[in-house]
Amino acid sequence: EASIHTIHIKNFIYSFSCIYNLLGYCLTYIKFLPLLLVSKATVKPFMLSFFFIFFFCPLLVFPCGSRSREWEYFDGRCYFFSIQRTNWLKAKAKCQSWNSQLVVIQDAAKQNFIQSRTRNEHYWIGLTDMDNEGEWRWIDGTNYLNGFTNWHKGEPNDSEGKEDCVQMHNDGEWNDLPCNNENNFYICEKPLPS
């Protein structure tokens, strides 16, 4: 547990320092843009500056894309935390409509990131045994049997034989629930834009 926190802190400091330094370069280029425009001797540097300012700098501010400002970046992927409650199937469809999927949690670092954003609410994740009772599967095919889990004590219990989808509780632990339950938010994930 302590090592995970240490890794998160180191990654945050490194990421912050990289972004801080690169944003400084962006601001410097923007500051001197008028000078570059009036000088004929700086056509090539201007073109490089133009490319840097208008194509690279926005990626620093919005790594998930400038049109995806509501998505959050973590460890090479982008995450959307819904503000509307819905059932699991509608959540899955909504994520797919954005070229993403319900979140797949493979390790404690990702679990901690998700949990830090979902306090005091319940969220659908991409785990189900809908196809075959008791055989839990991540929607992207990630191996469930040899992977990370964070079930609440006594879960999954398939109460009344109807609980085939998984929610993350407000405490971060997992619970199986009927897929048609409409009282959960959802989390989508997608790779960084290329």
From TrEMBL:
Show where the C-type lectin domain sits.
74-185
SUPFAM superfamilies registered for this protein in UniProt: C-type lectin-like
Q: Which InterPro entries match?
A: C-type_lectin-like (IPR001304), C-type_lectin-like/link_sf (IPR016186), C-type_lectin/snaclec_domain (IPR050111), C-type_lectin_CS (IPR018378), CD209-like_CTLD (IPR033989), CTDL_fold (IPR016187)
Pfam families registered for this protein in UniProt: Lectin_C
- What Gene Ontology cellular component terms go with this record? extracellular region
Which GO molecular function terms does the record list? carbohydrate binding
Classification via CDD domains: CLECT_DC-SIGN_like
Q: What is its main location?
A: secreted
Kindly state which keywords UniProt assigns to this record, in alphabetical order: Disulfide bond, Lectin, Membrane, Secreted, Transmembrane, Transmembrane helix
Compartment(s): Secreted
Q: Where are the transmembrane segments?
A: 12-30, 42-62
Q: Which PANTHER family match?
A: MANNOSE, PHOSPHOLIPASE, LECTIN RECEPTOR RELATED
Q: What is this protein called?
A: C-type lectin domain-containing protein
Task: Tell me what organism the protein belongs to.
Answer: Salvator merianae
